[in-house]
Amino acid sequence: MKLLWFFSHIALISALAISPTEASSDNKTPAVHQMAHPSVVRITQEITADSNKPGNQPANKPSDQAKPSDLEKSLPAIVPEAKVSDVKKPTSYHQRSNSYATNPESDPPRYVRRLSDIGVERFKDITWLEVGLEHRTRYEWRNNDIRRIEGGEDNPFFLRNRAWIGIKDILDPFRFAVEFQDSRVYNNKHAITDQERNEYDLLNAYGELHFKKALGADDRGNDRPIRFRVGRMAYETTDRRFIARNEWRNTTNTFEGFRLNLGREANDWELDLFGLQPVLRLQTQFDKANDHLWFFGGIGTWRKWSEIATFQAYYMGQKQTADPNGFTATSRLDRQIHMPGFRVYGKAGNILDFDVSYNHQLGYSGPNRVDAHGYTIEVGRGFEHTWKPRLSAFYGYASGDKDPNDNVDNRFDRFFGFARPWSADHYVIYENLKAPKLRFEISPTQKLGFEVGYGAYWLASKTDRMFDILDGNISNTIKDPGFNRDRTGQSGDFGGHAFEGRIRYQPTPRINTILGYTHFTAGEFVKNRIAAQPTHVDQRSGNTDFLYFEVLISLL
Fold it and tell me: Does residue 292 contact residue 336 with C-beta atoms inside 8 Å?
């Protein structure tokens, strides 16, 4: 009953961020939102009042992982610069990567804080309870979006509300946490998919055994714990390319299963073992695990020389039993993929920073043998200037299926990794791809930042697909018509190129805003695939424009 009480109140709080007059995503007349419980409203008012008093402005969130987070996912959070007198010599071995958007979300997520830190006097001694409330609104304008068969303009509004409650320390070694999320889209002219909507569901709901000093301590005195977590969980690891929450998207990846961690991020070494079933997002029903698919593996991290380089070696795998009722052709196959890989990132003195990874995939997919590989290379340099300019160059490669008739599947599988940093408008992902990119970033102040980038996209194999064009996305709503692949290879291999720009501004520590724009110029492959479907696809140049504005608010 207590858990039900919690969910009902969290749902009401989250609903406050949605205007009662907004149109429903199903074009139904929305019900008027009910007034939240008086005690919840009173506490919220106290938080607002107390947090505006001198000395009660929010500070950086402490974490067991000692983990500063970079907000790509939307964008890096901008925080006030610390005074020299406030900076303590670090004891953690962890070093962040300077490569673009590759630092995983903190655990718990960045919007979560100890109750003692929210600025309410009566809660100042409650350090064992973690809470968080977050709301995000994003408006998008898309012109002739090539992800769709239908061209023209689209002007959707995306709303996402999250809430977190967790208990630590007081019941150790037992800990638990629950994270709620409600995702909706309005004013969307296309069929709504599980990438946009997932109403009233759970991202995290797990119990954990946490033994703080089970493995002693490292050379710098950091406790080396053992942590065993069971239940539903959403998290990110390595460079987010294979396991990610996918923060840009309006809905979030999550799993059910277990994780066993030996050590933690602050230690000189750490081992992460997992066995998980991905959760199927059911939009208006409670999500459930995919009983036909297991995702498993182990990730070892060595940080002893992290001031120069951090090493990660890992094995990840998938085993799928055929689902005769599966929505996609792939889900109706028996599949098994094994992927060994490694990643190295760090700094070459004050000259360059680097991030390199390589992955090979073996196994089978239905009657075909799997043989695929992918790699990424990024180098960058920051310059000594008050505006903190940084220039970086990136190249990513993922193999595609070379011959659709040779019983060998060469298409690289990104598993459950992020999509957007490959392409801001989400036209390509980490498969069948050759992608060079250049990026320049500056931060004139701690609250203001600018980014510009240029990227070009070729297919690694012109007989394989370009993932997310012409309704070729993998969802449980829209059937793939197959327009995004030319098995003959006659459509060419150049997908196109794009200019990207973003401005981020953080007016207060609790509010982050982002304005972004991308112009995509179609290459021969996109133009030819549009021209090849005259009765199904709006005939257009393939060039697109994408503009968006996003506001992310931490409510505690």
Answer: no
